[in-house]
Amino acid sequence: MNRTRRNIIITLTCFGAYYIAFENFGEIMHIIDIILNYRPLSYFITYITIGIPIFLGTYLINSNYKIFNNLGLSKNILPGLILATLFALPMFIGGLISYKFNTEISIPNLIAGTIFAGLFEELYFRGFLFGQIFRNTGLGFFPSIIFGAIVFAAAHFYQSQDFSTMTGIFITTFLGAVFFAWLFVEWDYNLWVPIFLHTFMNLSWLLFNVSDNAFGNLKSNLYRGLTIATAIILTILHKRKHRQKLTIDLKTLMMKYNYHE
To answer: In Å, how far from its chain's centre is CA 16?
Structure first.
């Protein structure tokens, strides 16, 4: 079995095990919460627990104990924070202009919907499902992200029962998965960049009570589009300033032709 096929099988198998556990998130968290009796910590420990297959898969693929490094977590956290703050400004400014503060959201729900969602969704979907395939196989960007983007988008269907809204949610979150994966790669596999940006984008959505689903409305999508455009433009300008080529180009879009088994 060649390396590409082996690593794809390990990635998909371990992610499948994680996703089965994720489907039972509430039951697992209930058990942990009985022991800890502190909801935010129980939420965090549950996410770590169901992510055990992810950490195991990362070890098996890379054959070393540098799991955080291989998932993109060992990179400098400060640039991720600064960049994400800069990128997310249009959504926060737009929220201040067009919406009122959400005074009804609870702190535990705010933490779960921002910090934990940003951290673990990027870690498990981009750092592992996309990252391990793209970094450790001959597949290019598009085939590496397509499966994870579909699963990520489908996981948000619970937010609506209306077909048109569900379609909007799917398209929005699918493109979001592609966008975050692109940022992850272009910022030298520093997972903190998409983690913080994902967190801040969710934070603006919740703080200003923009919408009860990921699709949003015309104004919110305008501000979100400006944030995405800002991130893309500044990333490209940064690369040009330092005379660096974009990692994702025609040579790496479908297959990585310089990859050796």
So the answer is: 17
Which residue segment(s) compose the domain that 196 sits in?
75-241
> Using one digit for the tens of pLDDT, what is the confidence trace for 167-196?
998 999 999 999 999 999 999 999 999 999
Give the DSSP H or E segment for 55. helix 52-62
45 in any annotated domain:
no
How many domains does the chain contain in total? 1
φ and ψ at residue 139, rounded to 5 degrees:
-70, 145
Q: Which residues contact 227 (CB under 8 A, 6 or more apart)?
A: 87, 88, 89, 90, 91, 197, 201
Residue 205 CB-density burial (10 A; 0-12 exposed, 13-18 middle, 19+ buried): buried
Helices (H), 130-260: 131-136, 141-154, 163-186, 192-207, 218-241
Q: Please report whether residue 201 resides in a domain.
A: yes
Contact 15, 124 (CB under 8 A): yes
| Residues 101, 112: Cα–Cα separation, whole Å | 18
CA 46/CA 59 separation, integer angstroms? 20
Q: What is the pLDDT of residues 145-157, one digit of tens each?
A: 999 999 999 988 8
How many Å apart are CA 112 and CA 118, to the nearest integer?
9
Q: Is 56 part of a structural domain of the chain?
A: no
Assess if residue 246 is contained within a domain: no
